[in-house]
Specification:
alpha/beta, about 50% helix, elongated
Length: about 230
């Protein structure tokens, strides 16, 4: 790709293995908080939580619910569905979320090829930026724990901007913060709506990290392994 000077990277499930790290964290939470008294198994708990969380995040990305609502509701609903005592439901939900985020931020597993990709981009002289919809209080801990914080020249979080991807304002904010232009920027991300469609609407180029090889009608460049980036940049 000619003229590219800034390579922007999504964090969760693009370089930092959110799925694996969250799965591990939910297991720890289950045993630490005695949730085995309410769920059939640890996997029952995980699957119920993930289903609820997966349904809430698109609403949050679209600005239809607040961060605070998402953080409590993803635990409240799951506990309510298995008959957790109503009198303690809200209080327990408010305890579980910060504990979950605290444990999550200590996890270090990266997507296969992530560090090699970042090293490649640095060696090639690209500026590297990060754009994430994740919560500020945990995203920086993820970067530090996994020892990839030093790769990024600019970090842009939705919490700092007040809008989430795919809103073009977060992409415009990133350009202003970096002193870059849309024509010299490309983003690599795993979410076809938030990362790819959002960037393209903002006039950026995009590389879809389709690690699960799902059917895709996007016009963006597609890779299924981060090490394939070297064929494009």
């Amino acid at each position: 790709m000619k003229e590219i000077k800034w390579v922007w990277v999504d964090l969760d499930d693009t370089v930092w293995d959110f799925s694996a790290n969250s799965w591990e964290t939910l297991g720890e939470l289950y045993y630490r908080e005695g949730l085995d008294a309410y769920f059939l198994s640890v996997d029952d708990w995980r699957e119920r939580y993930l289903k609820c969380n997966h349904a809430l995040w698109p609403l949050y990305n679209a600005g239809k619910i607040t961060k605070e609502f998402l953080q409590v509701e993803r635990f409240r609903k799951v506990l309510a569905d298995v008959g957790y005592p109503q009198s303690d439901l809200l209080a327990k939900s408010k305890i579980l979320d910060p504990l979950y985020l605290s444990i999550l931020g200590t996890k270090t597993r990266l997507i296969d090829g992530a560090r090699e990709m970042l090293e490649y981009l640095r060696e090639k002289g690209y500026n590297i930026g990060l754009i994430s919809n994740g919560f500020r209080e945990v995203q920086y801990r993820k970067l530090k724990s996994s020892q990839i914080d030093g790769y990024f020249d600019v970090v842009v979080l939705s919490d700092d901007v007040g809008v989430n991807k795919p809103d073009r304002r977060i992409f415009d904010f990133a350009l202003k913060k970096a002193g870059a232009s849309a024509s010299e920027s490309v983003i690599i991300g795993d979410n076809p709506d938030a990362d790819i469609a959002g960037a393209e609407m903002a006039g950026w180029r995009a590389i879809y990290f389709n690690k699960d090889r799902v059917a895709d009608d996007s016009e963006a460049n597609v890779i299924s392994d981060l090490r394939q980036l070297s064929s494009l940049l």
